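Dear H.,

Thanks for agreeing to be a second pair of eyes. The structure we're designing against is below in token form, covering all 124 positions.
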């Protein structure tokens, strides 16, 4: 196997536990609020998406490839989807504003990070 293919497999292997961590930590974070002047502001979805972006950036920089970043984004989206699709009364992610921002924001953040991380894959 070539060195490039081996690196891609290592990147994917590293992306899976990163995605699991991001999915679980982001799900725990996404309902966090702060009360400001009597208004409840959700800061959790932004923190969860920032965590995912940082982890995807770390993967791209470490493996000099977009494959681990894409794999982490897809795996995180699937895992969060499974958490959101649990039966009634067992859901960890509700279909409200913070829940929707967290679930659908994963795809948006991953696409943005793939564009940003192209810098790490340039040769020369």
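And this is the sequence the design step returned. I haven't edited it by hand at all.
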């Amino acid at each position: 196997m070539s060195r490039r293919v081996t690196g891609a497999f290592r990147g994917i292997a590293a992306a899976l536990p990163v995605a699991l961590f991001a999915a679980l930590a982001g799900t725990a974070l996404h309902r966090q609020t702060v009360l400001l002047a009597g208004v409840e502001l959700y800061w959790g979805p932004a923190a969860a998406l920032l965590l995912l972006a940082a982890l995807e950036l770390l993967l791209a920089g470490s493996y000099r490839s977009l494959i681990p970043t894409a794999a982490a984004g897809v795996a995180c989206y699937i895992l969060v989807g499974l958490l959101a699709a649990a039966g009634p009364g067992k859901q960890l992610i509700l279909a409200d504003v913070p829940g929707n921002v967290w679930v659908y924001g994963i795809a948006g953040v991953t696409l943005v990070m793939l564009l940003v991380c192209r810098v790490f894959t340039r040769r020369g």
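Two observations from my side: The first strand starts at residue 33 and ends at 36. Residues 3-29 form the longest helix (27 residues).

Warmly,
E.
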